[in-house]
Amino acid sequence: MKHKTTTMEGAKFTWPRLDSMAKFKRWLVAVNLALAVWLLPGLSAHAANCTWTVEGKAKVEHQLSELRDKYGATSPLQGIKVKLQARKKVAGFWGNWAKWDEVTTRSDGSFEVTRKKSCDGTRQFKVLFKFQSDDLEVRHAKATSSTTKVKWYEVHNDKSKDVARASHSIDLGDLTFRPPEKFEMGDTGKSTWLHSAWLTDSEARAHADIWVT
């Protein structure tokens, strides 16, 4: 019985010139088994998903003494919107940011986003806050001349620290709007900002104070 060999994406299959239907059926079963063995590892890797969880707390350090006297030095930001974005590194390059979910903070300012995604690789995360709910919204300074009345304020971005997260459970801790502070960098005499520039944004901090009141 003569055979003809064909190559398909690295896999070689032999196509027999069959003399009977019985031989053809046996050959067909063998081909199906070979294809199953060849494709199974790729299908299993594609199906393997993990539960990724990103959590944190939204807070504000009050600017006015009246607010500090009434609420204490800091207050949780209850009921604001939180948007989580993520991106994955593929072949050594970071992909585009993709929205994972949008949630609302709890009474203690905490939030949690959970998503089923592939287990492999590393990811970066970006968190944004918006001072908006069903009952209240705090508009930004240029709202009257903008189509967007309520802004998203970026409060965390792994890109700024060149972080690549492999852990599937990430706690970002307290994300607190506060005044900027500087600290000295050892013997160099140079100073740098102690807190993220996003969390020291004066407009966002003022909005956070308004939200609490």
Structure notes:
The protein is of the alpha+beta class and 213 residues long. The chain has two domains: 3-47, no CATH class; 49-212, Immunoglobulins (Immunoglobulin-like, Sandwich). It contains three helices and 13 strands; from the N terminus they run ββαβαββββββββββα. It has helices at 21-47, 65-71, 202-212; strands spanning 3-8, 11-16, 49-61, 74-76, 81-90, 93-94, 98-104, 110-118, 123-130, 152-157, 169-177, 182-184, 191-193. The strands form four sheets. Strands 5, 6, 7, 9 and 10 form a five-stranded antiparallel β-sheet that branches. The longest helix is centred in the N-terminal third of the chain and has 27 residues, at 21-47. The radius of gyration is 28 Å and the shape is elongated. The protein starts with a strand and ends with a helix. The model is unreliable at 36-40, 42-47 and 191-195 (pLDDT under 50).
Give a summary of the structure in a few sentences:
It is built from three helices and 13 strands; from the N terminus they run ββαβαββββββββββα. It is α+β, with helices and mostly antiparallel strands and 213 residues long.
